[in-house]
Each structure stands twice: as C-alpha cells, then as structure tokens.
Design the sequence.
C-alpha cells in the first residue's frame, strides 16, 4: 500500500507495544529476528480491512484491548483444563499459558529417531536446530506471526531423524489456565528428516467467559521423501481470541497433510503458509470450521509452488449457524519454473443461520503455462431436496439437518489418516451438532 | 514435445505489430489548451454550450478529483500519468452535425476504413445485401461527428444522440439519471471523467418500446497527446428493450494515451439492456511501447423489478485495461449477466472482471469469463459477488477460465464472494490450463496448421461468450481473436 498516514494507535496497539518493549537486546540470530519482528509491528501495527490479507478479519477493530502477557499456570488447573484428544493414544505435551508444563508432559522414553525438547531449553542450550526458525518468510507483513516471533518464549522443538518412522503421534495440548484474561504466545519447530514419517497433533482450549488471547505458531521443515501428518483441533473458550500460524517448508517427493478443525473462540484466524521447494511433492490441506452465535473464524492459505511437478489439494468446509461469520482466503501461486503443477482448491460453506455471513476469496496467481490449476467456492443453505428425501423417510427435520451437516463436514474430516485422531474429531463434530439440537 | 517447443519458439519471435487500425487521419483540429485546471473544465463546458448546472456539476467533480488518489490495487503497472501533459479536448474543425455531407471527408474515409458506414444509404445498401440495420453514433476524439438513423429511431420514440446534445435538449432526463449509477465521487477515473467528459451517447427508450434496431457507438482516438473521456448514459424505461454495441480503435503511437470512460445503464421495471463491447484500442508494440491506458467505469443499475442487464465484452486491445462492468441488482427478480473474453498478448496488462451486487429478492447473476494470456502479458480476473442481508434467494454462478499460451505470461484470478444471506446460493469455479497437446495433435493430424489449430481451440474455449454477442459482432470478434493471437501460437 502506498503512504497511508497511520491513524492514532489503538489502545490494544499501545498495550502490545508496551509488552514489545520487553523484547531484550541480544547477540544471536534469534534475538535479531525478535527485534526485527517487534520493529515491523511498531511500523505497521494491527492490520485493518484495507490490508488485503486481513480484509475480512479487521484486527484493528476486532481486538479492542490487548491483555497483559500471562504468567505461569498452576499445574493442577492446567491439567484439569486440558481435556481435548485425551483419549487418543499419543505422546502428550502440555503448553499452558505459553510455557511447557514438564509435570504434565511426556518428555522421557523417546522412541528411537525422535528428539523432543522445549523451545526454552533448546534456546538455553544454544541448540543448532533453532537456526531453522524463521526459515519461511511471508511475502507480506503478517502481524500475527510478527507478534509471535517477538513474544514467544517457549514451545516444543521436535526432530525426527532421517528414515525414522514414528508411529505414535505427538500431541501438543495448548491450554489457557488462569482467573483473569491474559495473552499467551508459543512457538514450536518440527523438523522431519528425509524419508521419515511423523504425525503431529495440536489442540487449543481454555475457559469460556474469559477474553484471553492465544497466539501460536509452528514451523515444519519437511525433508525429501518424508511424510508428515498434522491434525489440529481448536476449541478455545467462547470469548477467546485465537491467532495461529502454520508454516511448511516442503522438500522433494514428500507428502504433507494438514487438517485444521475449528470450533471455538470468539475470533479465530489460522494462517497456513506452504513453500513447495522440492519437486514432485504432494500437499493436502483440509479443514472444517463449525461456528455458531456471533463467532468469527478466518482460514487463510498461501501456497507457493516454486518448483515443477508438485500437487496440492485443499478442501475447506464451513458450517455457519446463527449470526456467525466465516472467512476463507486461499492463494495458490505458481512460479514460472513450476511447470506441471497440479493445484486444486475448494471452499464450501453451508449456511444454517439467517444472519450468518460467508466470505470466500480463492485466488490463483499463475506464471507457468503447463499447469492444471483450479479453485471452486460455493455457499448456500441446505438443499431442500435432500431434506425432503430424508423427511419423506420419517426422519424428523432437526435430525435430518444434523445428518446432512455431518455428511457435509465428513467429507473433509475423512481425509485425516490417523484413526484415533479422526474418530476424536468426528466425536467433537457430533457434540457440536448435539449442542445445537 | 514438439508442439510446446513450437509455441515457445513462436512466442520468442513474437511480433504484435499487427494492429490494422493504427493509421492516423490528417485533419485540422481544435484543441483545449494543454493541461487540466478549472479553466479546462470551463472551456469544455463552453464549447458544448452547456447550461450552468452542468458546469457546476463538472467543477464540483474537478474539485473532488483534486483531493483523490490514483488507485493502485489492480495488478497493473505503468509509469505515472502526467495529467497536465494531456489535451482534454480535441475536435475536428469543420462543423459536422448539420448533415452527413458536411462531415470532413477525411473523417468519413477514416470510418469507412474502419468498416463503419456513417451514410445511411451505405447502411441501407447493407440491408439490401442481407445485413442488419445498425444506428451508429461516431465519436472522433472529443466530439460526436455523426449519428445515423436518428429519424427512424425518433419515430419509435427512441432518443439516440450525443450526450452533449442531450444535455441541452433533454436536461430533465440527463439531470435525473446522470451520475445516479456511477456517482461523481465513485473513483479516481470516474471523477476525472465527470469533470472533463466531452462526448458520448445518450439513449432513452420509452415505456414498452423495443428499440427497432441495434444502437452502436464507435469511438476513435485520433489526435496525439489526447485523452478520450466519453460518457454514455442509457435508460430503458419500463418494459423497454435495447441492444447497444460499442467499438473502439486508435492510431499506433509511441506514447501512451489515456482513455477514461464512464458508462451508466439504468433499467426500470421489466426493462432489458444488452451492452456489448469490442475493445480494440492500440495495445502498444511488442516491447510495450505506446498503447492506450484504458481505465473505464461501467455500471448498470437494475433499478426496476424483473429488469435485466447483460454485459458482453471482447477485450483485445489497450496496453492497460482496468475495467469492471458491474450490475447492481436492486429490483426484485432482476438479473445481471457478464460475459467476457479478455485476450492479452505482447506486454499488455489486463485487470478486468465484474461486480454483481445482489440487493433485491430472488435476484440472479451469471458470470462467464475467459482470459487468454500470451507473450509477456498479464491477465487478471478480479470480481466481486455479494448478497446483502435482504437479498433473499439470490443466485450466482461464476465460471472463469484462463488459458496460458507460452511460459512468460501470467494468468491470475481474484474473486471475492461475500454472502450475508443464508438463502443466497453462490457457486464459483475457476480453472487455469494451457492448450492441451492432445487437442493440438488431434487438429494437426487432420491437416490444420498449428496457428489454425490454436485459433480453433481458442474459439472453442471462448464459445460460451461469443454466442452472447450480436450476430455481426460475433463474426468480427472471432476474426479479432485470431488476429490478436497471431504470432503467439504454435
């Protein structure tokens, strides 16, 4: 954008700037990154509707006030709060209020080929792997990521050695525990070596009624021929503010699947960045969002095809009840060198509530000619014919609607490969529908 | 893959200097002093013998314009335009509106060369040989030089005349509708147009009248350093129907020329307007030198219930195209349509699309856009479909396909789909691909040379849109597509 004179800083911006003042001076690369991120926030502030990437999620007006950065959580409370995906057989790590809680985390007896430590510990030890942080740089200023870079102090750092097949997923449970609203930031890094396979699950939750703010970012570095599955479930408290960023650097011949499931928070924004830098890789990003009341959820994707022969598939489903607002933005960029790219993106929204709103913006930016790219977007109410079919068979209206919504969401949820995780997500969707009826 | 290799070779040896309308007509002209100021606005207004209210309207627009900034969100890049280095008014010296015989023969010859008959008897001869009757308003730089079939149209009650005349003869109609669809403050280029527009067509079709013939305007930029700012206003009263065609060309020059037009359509209850454009302004040479900057604001207002507005455009010319013909679907059960073929070759940059704004109940819209990028060009589709809270039962179907010829060009799709009503049903699909080797092989096997084969495939690709054009235009457009892609295909 050209020289827009920045309006007066909002209360939230001022509060955030105050916490940015604590970003320490230091000598290493990470410290430099942090300061650069803090500076870019000072310059650009919170994005507003004139900033194209945030057109439908105007943080400047949505984020009325910034709450102070959260202190350490009480272990017992964090344990009680972290309920999601508990039944799934996985190695469980708990991050409460932005810091790993060792008492609740399964950090010992690691499988061969898996190394797992906390971000804070890796930093203290000057771990070499942290040089991968900040490897993927969004082409435009991203306020959510900048704040995370500047303020996150902990998270997990996972390395899977080349060729290792880790069958048991690692589940990182993010939770907010505390009596007053606060902000929490965490940053994680997952490096999957060449030919390795790994499943990573994340969950997000916190108390209803507290306007806490969660900001999470995870970077994935996927080696040649590796296979990575990411499953995330976001069920933050009803008044919470959730900002998260997932960044993927995808190597040659690799396979990356990510599924994001969003049910919670008053305002949620999830941004996925993927750089396809190795030939013949496959990326599948899918997601489902179920919203009610006055919830606002935004899923934004950037796929950058830099090399030839890659395939990307995206399927996002949004169900909107009451006066909820759903946003989907997806951008596929195909660089001149990326011949033989095959990209398909689909966003479908089912509108149940009379006051609900859906905004779709699927984009294609293509500079190579020998490609197959497409996107689709649909938006509408439940098909009356389908409803009639079911009702004609004696199924009550509410139940028929539930069945159709389940089928609608099911198409996306089915893409989750891990049985336990998929079943857990289906169960959450059913709970959402049951609460509605 | 020989076919691909040939395509690449052909593109390398690309020569886009095939613009056949690039000649310049030597005539004496009268111009406003160079530059833009309140005096320029007053000069134009005085030249047109405009009433006081019109001058005030213009001046207000000009003052507003001074406070505005040039938009930069489109995917086009061009050197900054020096608005003080342009002529805002240029007219052939001889009085021309008395009768066809008073028109400078040079101008008549120009239009003949362009294939536009201005003499009604020529057009009538066309009928004898099987053609259709089309009434033409010919705009040469800043003035309308001739309007044909005026009498026959007035018998049907249709008003078809240069807008500068309409301002004097039908001030009430003009006052009521001018700026009611594209407000003076709408955007940078529309505001500039409001201040300095020189001519254009005015059409009023009264209640229940089906306009007896196609109406057409032919725009020609001739003079050097001149901007063309035409303004078209079409009103279809209750139950009326009108089909309107627009064509444009300009000489080949090294410099960039500015074209900033505004078109406003108003359809009242049960009325229908069909607006077709074949835009073939000079696109610049193969290195991107010269060419027209085409910044156009076109908008139709389906003000009445059951009204319909249909835009069809074939965009092959201009160095820069910035154009989004839109429909405001205000009346209940109203319909909007947008059919577009945008072809870019050489260094052309196209950023075009549409807006369908659903306000009324049971409104429906349909968008079919075909973009073809060749050479070093960039071709962007940018569109908005929106349903407001009260637009119950709104329906939209959008299909935008892009075809890339060569690996130095870009095709982009930026749709915005916003639904604020649960009963609105929107569908959008977009694809980008290249001409498949299989298709080419199939055609070549049957003895077509690569260029013919590509033209055939491209014509198949754009068929859905071509079908929407009036008959004579469709044939013309089909040829134009082949010419535009010449030298780019293998």
Sequence:
């Amino acid at each position: 954008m050209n020289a827009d004179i920045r309006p007066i800083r909002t209360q939230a911006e001022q509060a955030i700037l105050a916490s940015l003042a604590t970003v320490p001076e230091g000598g290493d690369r990470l410290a430099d990154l942090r300061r650069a991120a803090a500076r870019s926030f000072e310059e650009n502030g919170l994005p507003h509707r004139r900033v194209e990437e945030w057109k439908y999620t105007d943080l400047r007006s949505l984020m009325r006030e910034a709450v102070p950065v959260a202190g350490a959580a009480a272990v017992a409370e964090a344990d009680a709060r972290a309920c999601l995906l508990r039944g799934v057989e996985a190695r469980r790590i708990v991050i409460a209020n932005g810091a790993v809680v060792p008492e609740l985390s399964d950090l010992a007896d690691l499988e061969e080929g898996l190394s797992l430590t906390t971000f804070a510990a890796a930093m203290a030890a000057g771990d070499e792997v942290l040089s991968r942080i900040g490897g993927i740089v969004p082409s435009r200023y991203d306020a959510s990521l900048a704040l995370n870079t500047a303020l996150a102090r902990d998270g997990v750092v996972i390395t899977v050695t080349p060729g290792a097949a880790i069958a048991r997923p690692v589940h990182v449970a993010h939770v907010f525990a505390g009596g007053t609203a606060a902000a929490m930031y965490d940053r994680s890094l997952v490096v999957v070596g060449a030919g390795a396979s790994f499943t990573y699950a994340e969950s997000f939750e916190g108390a209803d009624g507290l306007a806490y703010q969660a900001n999470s970012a995870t970077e994935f570095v996927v080696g040649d021929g590796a296979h990575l599955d990411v499953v995330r479930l976001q069920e933050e408290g009803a008044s919470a503010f959730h900002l998260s960023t997932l960044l993927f650097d995808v190597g040659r011949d690799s396979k990356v699947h990510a599924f994001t499931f969003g049910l919670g928070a008053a305002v949620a924004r999830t941004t996925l960045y993927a750089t396809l830098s190795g030939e013949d890789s496959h990326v599948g990003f899918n997601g489902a969002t179920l919203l009610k009341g006055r919830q606002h959820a935004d899923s934004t994707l950037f796929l950058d095809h830099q090399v030839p022969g890659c395939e990307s598939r995206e399927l996002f489903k949004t169900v909107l009840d009451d006066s909820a607002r759903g946003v989907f933005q997806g951008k596929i960029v195909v660089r001149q060198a990326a011949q033989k790219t095959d990209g398909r993106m689909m966003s479908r929204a089912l509108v149940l509530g009379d006051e609900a709103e859906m905004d779709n913006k699927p984009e294609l930016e293509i500079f190579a000619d020998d490609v197959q790219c497409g996107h689709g977007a649909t938006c509408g109410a439940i098909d009356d014919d389908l409803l009639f079919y079911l009702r004609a068979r004696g199924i009550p209206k509410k139940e028929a609607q539930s069945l159709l919504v389940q089928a609608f969401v099911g198409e996306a949820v089915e893409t989750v490969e891990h049985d336990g995780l998929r079943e857990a997500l289906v169960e959450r969707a059913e709970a959402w529908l049951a609460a509605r009826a | 893959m020989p076919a691909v290799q040939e395509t690449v070779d052909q593109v390398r040896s690309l020569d886009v200097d095939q613009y056949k309308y690039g000649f310049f007509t030597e005539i004496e002209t009268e111009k406003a002093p160079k530059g833009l100021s309140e005096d320029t606005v007053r000069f134009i207004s005085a030249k047109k013998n405009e009433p006081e209210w019109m001058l005030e309207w213009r001046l207000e627009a000009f003052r507003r314009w001074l406070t505005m900034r040039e938009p930069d969100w489109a995917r086009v890049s061009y050197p900054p335009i020096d608005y003080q280095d342009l002529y805002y008014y240029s007219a052939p010296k001889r009085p021309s509106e008395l009768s066809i015989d008073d028109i400078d023969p040079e101008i008549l010859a120009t239009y003949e060369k362009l294939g536009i008959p201005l003499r009604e008897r020529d057009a009538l001869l066309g009928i004898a040989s099987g053609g259709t009757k089309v009434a033409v308003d010919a705009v040469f730089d800043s003035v309308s030089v001739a309007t044909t079939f005026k009498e026959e149209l007035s018998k049907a009650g249709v008003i078809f005349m240069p807008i500068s005349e309409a301002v004097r003869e039908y001030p009430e109609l003009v006052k009521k509708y001018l700026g009611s669809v594209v407000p003076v403050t709408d955007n940078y280029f529309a505001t500039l147009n409001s201040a300095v527009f020189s001519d254009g067509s005015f059409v009023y079709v009264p209640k229940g009248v089906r306009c007896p013939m196609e109406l057409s305007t032919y725009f020609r930029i001739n003079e050097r350093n001149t901007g063309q700012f035409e303004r078209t206003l079409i009103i279809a009263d209750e139950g009326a129907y009108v089909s309107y065609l627009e064509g444009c060309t300009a000489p080949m020059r090294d410099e960039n020329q500015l074209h900033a037009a505004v078109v406003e359509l108003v359809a009242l209850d049960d009325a229908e307007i069909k607006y077709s454009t074949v835009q073939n302004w000079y696109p610049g040479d193969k290195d991107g030198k010269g060419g027209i900057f085409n910044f156009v604001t076109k908008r139709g207002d389906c003000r009445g219930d059951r009204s319909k507005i249909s835009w069809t455009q074939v965009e092959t010319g201009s160095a820069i195209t910035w154009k989004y013909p839109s429909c405001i679907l205000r009346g209940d059960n109203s319909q909007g349509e947008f059919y577009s073929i945008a072809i870019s070759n050489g260094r052309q940059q196209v950023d075009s699309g549409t807006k369908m704004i659903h306000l009324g109940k049971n409104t429906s819209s349909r968008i079919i856009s075909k973009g073809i990028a060749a050479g070093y060009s960039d071709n962007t589709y940018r569109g908005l479909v929106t349903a407001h809270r009260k637009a119950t039962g709104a329906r939209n179907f959008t299909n935008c396909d892009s075809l890339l010829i060569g690996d130095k060009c870009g095709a982009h799709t930026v749709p915005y789909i916003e639904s604020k009503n649960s009963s609105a049903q929107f569908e959008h699909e977009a694809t980008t691909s290249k001409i498949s080797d299989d298709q080419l092989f199939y055609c070549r096997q049957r003895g077509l040379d690569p260029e013919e084969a590509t033209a055939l495939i491209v014509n198949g690709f754009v068929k859905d849109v071509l079908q929407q054009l009036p008959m004579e235009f469709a044939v013309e457009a089909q040829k134009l597509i082949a010419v535009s892609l010449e030298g780019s295909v293998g």
